[in-house]
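Researcher: Structure prediction, please.
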Amino acid sequence: MGSDGATGADPHVKAANFQPAGISMNSNTKNRTALVTGACGGLGAVIAERLCKEGYRVLLLDVSDAVYAQAQALGERGFQARGLVCDITSEDEIKAVFGRLDAEHEHVDILVNNAAISPKVDGKSLTAEEVPLAEWQAVLMVNLTAPFLLCRTVAPRMRGNGWGRIINMASVAGRTRSMVSGAHYSASKAGLIGFSRMFASQVAKDGITVNCIAPGTINAGLGGQLNAQMTDNYKKNIPVGRIGEPEEVAAMVAYLAGEETSFITGAVFDINGGYFMP
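Model: Predicted structure follows.
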């Protein structure tokens, strides 16, 4: 798997160079770098683009090689974007990526743990009694253990700079019952919220904030995979009468990534159109 260190010898851990920026940094974003996991398509792509528009340098991290073309396309629009390929379920590959970034004197100031999986069979989740153990473990590995690994890898680097923003993408499924998500997905997202609160309390003194965003049904990524009937059923249970757009979630990410949010930590921001009101 990944090599531990700055050599970048592992063929599975590859990087494309930053593209020249055609925009100027504003006072809130200059010299800040954001890393977005699961950045290849769906909600992650929209988040990465929004952070680019805010003026950040953005590292787009995904398990798919397609992330290179995505970063290239952003670069051609004048943004600073770089593609990184990594299996975030492998601690060795995570160490190799950060080893390479350290060797290049590249810092990660903002971490957005967006990558997640939600297995379905014929568009539906299996019941808890039906889920194979291997599937349960795979979902928790991607949705909960990988954010844990990334948080504890990036925190010492943020601590050294006295500043950091960690934004963990949870879900309404981790807040209340879900009409479509499986028990493993709900458990992983509830666990991510609990972990985020504990981690927030441990790193707050170092100038690092840790917050969660809990989207409801969004017209992108996992939410975008719902068929028309399932989407209509969801709309009937959402007070605003529609599903969310990925740009609405990306706007909250941009807000939490900013300089002015240092007094917000350990919080969960629900973006679900009123489907769940705690």
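Model: The two ends are 42 Å apart (CA to CA).
Researcher: Thanks, that helps.
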